[in-house]
Structure to design on (532 residues):
């Protein structure tokens, strides 16, 4: 059965949650036909924090977040779920997280495992693995931005049974990650929704080009390199669950895990 | 320091080693400027064996092979090493192998870990892992054809320190694997030499398009979909050994192996 999912490409307003929500509301309304909407990385806060104090000021706990409350309201209004990038505060730690939100509030959290550049000074590396969550009969995993460069986590999502990887991102190098994502989709046989941001912050320019990829590596939608975009695509979970390559081959069953041991040794 | 390596795309003659060698000799001569030459999968025999008996008839032990003797002779003549696909007989088993050959004879063997389609009826799955061999100061790994679909083995090659993955193949689906290979090169930060075959055997058509890719995912050379080709490219092992992405990021050092455990569980 075909399902409609969407990605939203836009520019959060650094340090101004209310302004970001005002930008986001009409874009989310445009995605109302979808059951699931993916937003960029660090969506509530922007990205280029001047320092740790600024990151802390914008971060919120998953269980007590005005931004996630805003999204839950939009979920209730439009009848969809949202995956958003989110600066998560947990005690005195900050995580660069992705949160699945429904009308009832936060449903599941992923904490970015592979931090990029200055993020290493601001955030704690993720400690929740790559959870796969079933929601409305669709199995979702979440990854964040620079995770794109690590085939291991894309495979973990497949082994967890994901039909779809939701991938909030803030790419700064044009084309590089965008070339890899369809191949991650292809070799794992699932869908990927990569929602990337645009605009610039403190000299850092974001490169847009959000994309949706399918289980044969096909590009289902590609947003432009600049400007807001809402891309709605149809996906079929049955296609992601069929890992056959030939009558004798299967993307997952043909793996040789007994030969892969060095992957988990330091 | 820049090094010259080559791939040869051609059509072995099914079941006729002498005819195959006659085709190969002038192609190898054209690659004489290279230090290393990569040939397609199952190069000595062809691919579409009618049955197990035909595969056995063409297969040879690595240590007692007229085809590998032929290649060692060409290595001595032209001053290079060769990686070739090879139907390997070992006792009563057959492996779909890749063999590194120098003027002195066979140097190292890889046995295909992920068998494709009917190969499962003819060959035993590989049991030698993904060895990385140092040769003339260049660190080489070998993979064979359908291994392309398994990010795990590309990563094992990187973890073993490979500068270059030699990838004999006989692709039958155009474009599919060829799109993935540059991404495997990119996320692992090394070179790949994919030597593919052309022609047809018993209704099976091979799709050529051999390619060389670099550590930024760049395509260094691409052979046409049909016809013989010799592609010589310059590679720089120093570029493959520098895994930095930013001043704070590294393709391998940023891995989180403690989080990857499900990759080695069945």
């Amino acid at each position: 059965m075909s399902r409609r999912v969407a990605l939203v490409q836009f520019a959060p307003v650094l340090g101004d949650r209310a302004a970001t929500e005002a930008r986001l509301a009409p874009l989310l309304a445009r995605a109302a036909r979808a059951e699931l909407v993916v937003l960029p990385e660090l969506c509530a806060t922007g990205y280029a924090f001047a320092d740790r104090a600024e990151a802390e000021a914008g971060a919120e706990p998953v269980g007590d977040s005005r931004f996630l409350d805003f999204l839950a309201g939009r979920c209730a209004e439009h009848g969809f779920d949202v995956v958003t990038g989110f600066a998560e505060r947990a005690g005195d730690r900050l995580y660069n997280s992705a949160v699945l939100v429904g009308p009832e509030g936060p449903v599941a959290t992923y904490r970015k495992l592979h931090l990029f550049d200055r993020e290493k000074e601001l955030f704690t590396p993720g400690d929740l693995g790559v959870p796969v969550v079933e929601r409305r009969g669709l199995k979702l995993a979440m990854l964040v931005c620079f995770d794109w460069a690590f085939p291991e986590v894309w495979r973990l999502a497949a082994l967890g049974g994901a039909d779809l990887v939701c991938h909030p991102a803030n790419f700064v190098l044009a084309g590089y990650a965008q070339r890899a994502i369809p191949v991650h989709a292809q070799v794992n046989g699932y869908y990927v929704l990569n929602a990337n941001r645009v605009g610039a912050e403190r000299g850092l320019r974001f490169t847009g080009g959000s994309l949706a990829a399918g289980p044969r590596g096909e590009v289902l939608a590609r947003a432009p390199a600049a400007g807001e975009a809402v891309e709605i695509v149809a996906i079929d979970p049955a296609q992601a669950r069929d890992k056959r390559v030939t009558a004798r081959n299967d993307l997952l069953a043909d793996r040789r895990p007994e030969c892969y041991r060095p992957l988990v040794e330091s």
